[in-house]
Amino acid sequence: MIQLPEILDIPEKLIPVITNINNYNYFLIEGGRGGGKSQSIARLILWIAEQRKVRVCCGRETQATISDSVHKIFNDLITDYNLNFTVKSNKIIHNYSNSSIIFKGFKEQGRVNIKGLEGIDILWIDEAQAISKSTLDVIIPTIRKKNSIVIFTMNRLVRKDPVYSEFVSRDDCLHIKINYYDNKYCPEKLILEAQRCKERNIQDYEYIWEGNPIDTTNDFLFSSIKLDRAKNLKINEENYRKIRCMSVDLAGSGGDLCVASLIESKSTTQWSLEKQDFWSEPDTDITKGRIINLYSLWKPELLILDADGLGYSIYVSIKNVIANTIKFNGAASSNRPNALNRRADGYLTLKDYIDNEWLKISSDFTVSQLEYIKKSYKPNGQIVIQSKKDMKAEQGESPDFADSLMMGIYAINYYSYLIDEREETVILDSNFDPYG
What we know:
By secondary structure, the protein is α/β, with parallel strands linked by helices. The protein has helices at about 15-20, 35-50, 70-80, 135-140, 160-165, 190-200, 200-210, 225-230, 285-300, 310-320, 340-355, 365-370, 390-395, 400-415, 415-420, and strands spanning about 25-30, 55-60, 85, 90-95, 100-105, 105-110, 110, 120-125, 150-155, 175, 245-250, 260-265, 270-280, 300-305, 325-330, 360, 375, 385.
């Protein structure tokens, strides 16, 4: 049995963090309230800071005041154990080893600030579920001192959490999940509170006390449970004329993708996302050729194209070649009074199809993008969908696959009547070579 100093008297489930402190570069400690995550990591850091000189940074996405940080946890432990630290308002220093602990908010005035992170030995990010992908991409490469480590403590809010997605499966990361019932030091008062919460609201209990990602929040548009159902939806196909819709979301900026989706009817009420193809070629002529080639292969009755920005010229060119082409302008007016614009209308329509089990989505990647689609409300109550630019800044990727699917469902919902008005959709110029 390992003999540890009194300050390292932490839940047994977290002992591997101590015994493996030199074996991993990253430590991901997650779980619900009462698991002792923050208390245990603070104890470990103080103990290390007594043994040798280290520079420690305790950071969060944003930190308006020192009270937003873990400063108080350190201060209380130093007082309780009479440790030889000097506690200042924004820094803690050990009087013999000269170790220092600083506290930092990474994002200031919309930008990630890495000042002060050079030469850090230990970076502890508490409340790591608030860290955005853009912040993560800047911070992690900065911690490059030999033998430096990064510790995350968190209660994951959504399944596609940037920190969790990046580190949970890495072989240089130790991942531990701990909850209140794993912590022998959890106060009886908290245990009773957890039991009351379980009786009152099982969904709240699952997130707050079990540390499981919440099904949905006020910020996110889609329920993860309903997205799971959409992936595994059982469809009873009917023997009738199939309808196919092809939708293309065009790259809006560098790093974005052009994504084409094919959606096919399976019954009078159910549809299936059958195929998706993507490319990143910036040449508009090549993009036109890809669209026309896919159209000839997939043979859809409806084709809807992203006509925002640079996409408009591509739409005009395709419209001259393929008769049944519909344009999609995300900023245009909505058919729904509760949606600010057509993009919000499209996503609310897609939500209807998913919630009512009218759509099967077999693509895990597309479902993962749908998980982080966020909504907000204007003062008049209209729903706004977070912009692709802001999503890319937060998640590190543009929701191109999700947008392509959304456009297809929008076309199916609002333009299906056009199918019966057309005898047969054809490429107007049969001699047209899509690759020129």
